[in-house]
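Subject: two folds for Thursday's group meeting

Dear M.,

Sorry for the delay on this. The cluster queue was jammed most of the week, so I only got both jobs back this morning. I'm pasting them in the order they finished. Each block is the input sequence followed by the predicted structure tokens. Could you check whether the formatting survives your parser before we put anything on slides? The first protein is the one we discussed after the seminar.
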Amino acid sequence: MQAWQVHELGEPGEVMRLAEVARPAPGDGQVLLKVRAANINFPDALMCRGQYQVRPPLPFTPGVEICGETEDGRRVIANPALPHGGFAEYAVADAAALLPAPDALDDAEAAALHIGYQTGWFGLHRRARLEAGETLLVHAAAGGVGSAAVQLGKAAGATVIGVAGGAAKASVARELGCDVVIDRHEQDVVAAVKEATGGRGADVIYDPVGGQAYAQSAKAVAFEGRIVVVGFASGSIPSPALNHALVKNYAILGLHWGLYNTRNPELVRHCHEQLTELAARGAIKPLVSERVPLTGAADAVQRVADGVTTGRVAVLPPTENGAAA
């Protein structure tokens, strides 16, 4: 089969190489899956660089989120068991963690439903306890993680303010349903949030960016607001001033979604049921901006790493007739 492999650490576009390799053999409790679509996540790029908390042995195949097909023909969503990741024709995954792919979504959309939407659901509902009528601020609203949070916030009845960088991404944020869109290249984010909320600030702030975005969050959060720290796509990990959290009376909430897979897997399944129901009634639908063939995976991962994509980019391995899925 064909699979992308990383033999040395570095930029994805430089270190990912397409090779002909043997199909992976499932271990105890694992199953072999035919990859129907693999979604690109920012951690794939971090893994190539050796900067992610999970460091698979070299060589490894990146790709942490797929829609796959079991040997008996079931369409499932899975997180491949590294080092046999999803940017390949076949991957392996833990049988107990497989989730049914929603009928309402195609393969690329189903592959994009899992990590970003689970992270959004846990962040907004489990951690921040977002309520209808509250104001939600989403940084990087046009990106893969941010776009999921925007849709989930709207589905929960919140007023959603989206922050995006540049006119094109701001346009995508509007199309996603943001009530207010702030172009951070053209506007003062904190002032714009205060203006949009009558000086009150945002009740919940969803931050997958870190760095300057977190500094803006601390200034734009409302009394008794909650800042959900999801990641550090900017590459800069902030050091919060806890005295500021005290005097403004807000909460800083960390979210590492992967922990729920080991600490409370039943909650992951419950979340998937909620997401499947939302997808069935059209309340959420992953924004897949590009569908690229397997041969284009390295370039696509690099573009995600560079922050120039919107929504999700899906990698589609060839079907039996040689065409992309």
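Second protein, same layout:
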Amino acid sequence: MSPQQARIVIVGAGQAGARAAEALRAAGHRGSIILVGEEEHLPYERPQLSKAILIDRDPNPTLIRQSREWNELDIALRTSSRVVAADGQKRIVGLANGQELPFDCLLLATGTRVRRLIELENAPLPVRYLRGMGDALALREELQPGRRVALVGGGVVGLEVASAAIGRGCLVTIVEKADRLLPQIGSASLGRYLQHLHTSRDAEIICGGSVRQATSRGLELGDGRFIPADLALVGVGVEPVTELARQLGLDAERGVRVTSTGATAADGIFAAGDVAEQWSRSHDRWMRVENWANAQNQAIATAKSMAGVSTAYDAPPWFWSDQYDANIQVVGNPAGGDEIVRGDVAAGRFVSISVRDGEVIGGITVNSARDMAVLRRLVASRKPVRKSDLENPAFELKRSLAA
């Protein structure tokens, strides 16, 4: 059978699954496409969950397409549907309602689920997690002026929710287990900046703190300190949804490992988005990439390969975060080399560049989007650079591209 005539089932109707479905049609795929999602909502953009949905006067979720547009593409979209079984030999997936969907090619875009904090299970205090649209809409209603909100986890989600909560008049405390905010990035300069950014907006920040338990009045930390709170939001990471991959016989301990074209070790089975474990040149290891750009672009490349046009994807990881009036962008592996800081951290406009063996492997920009455009090209191109040039504040960063 021609790849363009194959019956394709996509499990997961989030950013990756939806963009893959679109890309299949754009690549000329003529076979059936069924897009299956657990949520009741139509496919939507995820970055808005911790940003616009919480902040805007009227929350109007940004949908990837309206129902009629999915129909116009001849894509069968099944919302509120959960895939519970997959058989690679029989080439079928089974839904929770007992229905079976046959396929020739299968795309796993199952994403991730939030990592839950055992210490707060069955807590007398309201404890929330933010993963889907329903979570965001419910949290929005709870962020009322004067409410005391404890944010457990100083990563991207926690910090963006902190920004939104303070903007809505809440009193915010951030508890981070590591010794700095956004610890996964590994940048001391960014950690210092974020500490100042949030404390200047009256957020209380506790680094090196862990939650022992909750009471009806707040959170008790491991060192005995007590954080008064009316609500706790937990953002301590996610884990890949790999049950179907395991049923298909795939090794999915840390995600579903894929080639640069999105193919898994099983014939006709592909994976895309947050669940896919990819090789990162800048990190020099296999890893899952949990961001909007990868969910969209890696999924599009994978869809093209499924349609018979082999398309490799090896762009360095890149994401952004909007907090208050600050724009923070990160590319590659900022913690993987020697850090060079350009600009003024205290003034809130600077660039951090990570250099390893004469190559830029990562970078951070704060309120400096033009510099990020250059850094993304540098990390992707692997052009050799001189540290002395980058350390010279008079040296224009874009000149490194011409070297």
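Two things I noticed about the second structure. The chain is about 25% helix and 30% strand. The mean pLDDT is 96.

Cheers,
T.
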